[in-house]
Specification:
15 helices, six-stranded mixed β-sheet, binds NADP nicotinamide-adenine-dinucleotide phosphate, 19 strands, alpha/beta
Length: 437
């Protein structure tokens, strides 16, 4: 038997598991996750009001249901089982742990109460146990969101929507209540470069056109009349579409709805201002853009905000003993190869870029590489795989969660959902485990 371990049950891990369980003869694929719940980013990263994107789990469920695939939830590799112990028992390891840690802005005031990274904030409203107790400061009339990617748009939209608009989402009950009770009037979405350089996509940008209580606004002076003549024709269509949407927002009346989303460009945060340990404002420096690069003009201005959320990208968390590139915050690798028998894919391989289909393509490539390496060098078949790992987990009193256990948790979440919600997530591990014993 060829024993394959996958660390992390998000999309990248599921795609590798799917291919290897089908294509490698006599393979046993064990997918480890430190949470009792599978699907990683699909459950805890994808916006709760983008349920369509979450449909991909139906395909992953089929993978987990295969005879030679095992879900081993609630097991933290690097803690419950060491990386070396896993290497000793498996012929192949694929590391697909994503990128969970927020990158710092590196400015004064980042440690004030009221400052959050998007990773923590998104995890909070999506019911990830790591941030169930975040209790973000939302008693604010002004909230700033830093970044011009789709994560920044997701957060802005979730803050802008009413509880009714979130009614068919799987946002946690506590979060939707906290957001509904927030007195927020002004949300600022701040890009350090211009609208032409923004990395958000039009489907997401357009969602602000018809929100119940929130109007999107842009200063028309920040929008170019046309793209430069030498602009990359491949990128032009998408950028034109964004500009068209933004021009529409520039015509909106600021007083038409109770909450305003100010879409601002060409400004970098230089300090988060505070009093008594709490945010009282955000200082920004105006930028000029030359050849797509932002440089500060020296001119600063302050925003009256009491909460700041940065959505500027992520780093992966190292696992002890695993080669790790501290500078880039990724697992060290050369085109997916980490070391003998160890591979990586997804955000922990390339950095936090790309949507689920991009990670599918990445994982397919890595899985093909694994298959080619196994064909070139057939393992001796002398590794014990899960038999030995299960014994270690037993000795260490770790309660593993199998796929049928997850189905029990899943059913309980679906059962307790109210109204049109597809599920009410459990966001604490003991609550989930209590359903099983
Ligand atoms: P992203 O698209 O790379 O956006 C990061 C943003 O942070 C950029 O605007 C970047 O500006 C800005 N930034 C970085 N460092 C900064 C700093 N020090 N100060 C100010 N701004 C800074 O990444 P993301 O939004 O985290 O999304 C990650 C990936 O997931 C993307 O591929 C995204 O498309 C995908 N995603 C997709 C969806 C969806 O399809 N609905 C939803 C969420 C995420 P610069 O451009 O100037 O570097």
């Amino acid at each position: 038997m060829i024993n394959i371990a996958i660390i992390g049950s998000g999309p990248s891990g599921c795609y590798i598991a799917d291919m290897l369980s089908k294509k490698v003869a006599d393979a046993q694929v064990d997918i480890f996750d430190r949470l009792p719940t599978p699907f990683g980013l699909v459950r805890a990263g994808v916006a709760p009001d983008h349920q369509g994107t979450k449909n991909i789990v139906r395909q992953f469920e089929r993978t987990f249901s295969r005879d030679n695939v095992r879900f081993v939830g609630n097991v933290n590799i690097g803690d419950d089982i060491t990386y070396q112990e896993l290497k000793d028992q498996y012929d192949v390891i694929a590391v697909t742990i994503g990128a969970l840690q927020d990158r710092d802005l590196g400015i004064d005031g980042e440690d004030l109460n009221g400052v959050y990274g998007s990773g923590a904030f998104v995890a909070w409203y999506n019911g990830h146990p790591d941030h169930a107790d975040l209790n973000p400061k939302l008693d604010s009339s002004g909230i700033a969101i830093i970044g011009n990617g789709n994560v920044a748009l997701d957060i802005s939209r979730i803050l802008a929507k009413t509880a009714e608009e979130m009614g068919s989402s799987d946002i946690t009950a506590d979060s939707v209540t906290a957001i509904a009770e927030s007195p927020v009037q002004d949300i600022y979405l701040i890009g350090r470069r211009g609208p032409v350089e923004a990395s958000f996509t039009n489907a997401e940008l357009s969602e602000f056109a018809e929100l119940e209580r929130c109007v999107a606004l842009v200063d028309p002076a920040q929008l170019p009349a046309a793209l430069p003549e030498d602009f990359d024709p491949k990128a032009a269509k998408a950028v034109e579409k964004n500009l068209e949407t933004l021009r529409g927002y520039a015509e909106n009346a600021a007083d038409s709805k109770p909450v305003r989303l100010h879409i601002m460009f060409c400004a970098s945060p230089t300090a988060i201002l505070g009093e008594n340990g709490t945010v009282t404002g955000l200082r920004l420096e105006k930028n000029q853009i030359t050849d797509g690069r932002a440089t500060g003009t020296g001119e600063t201005f302050d925003l009256d905000v009491q909460t700041v959320i940065s959505a500027i990208g992520y780093r992966s968390q190292p696992i002890e003993g695993m080669p790790f590139d501290e500078g880039r915050g990724i697992v060290s690798n050369e085109e997916g190869r980490v070391e003998d028998g160890v591979y990586t894919s997804g955000w922990c391989k390339r950095g936090p870029q790309g949507v689920i289909p991009a990670n599918r393509a990445d994982s397919m490539g890595v899985a093909k590489q694994i298959i080619a390496d196994l064909e070139a060098n057939t393992p001796a078949g002398d590794k014990a795989g899960f038999n030995k790992i299960a014994a270690l987990l037993d000795e260490r009193n770790v309660r593993t969660v199998g796929f049928s256990d997850w189905q029990t948790i899943n059913e309980a979440e679906v059962r307790r959902a109210e109204g049109d919600k597809p599920r009410e997530k459990f966001n604490r591990i003991p609550e989930m485990l209590a359903l099983l014993d």
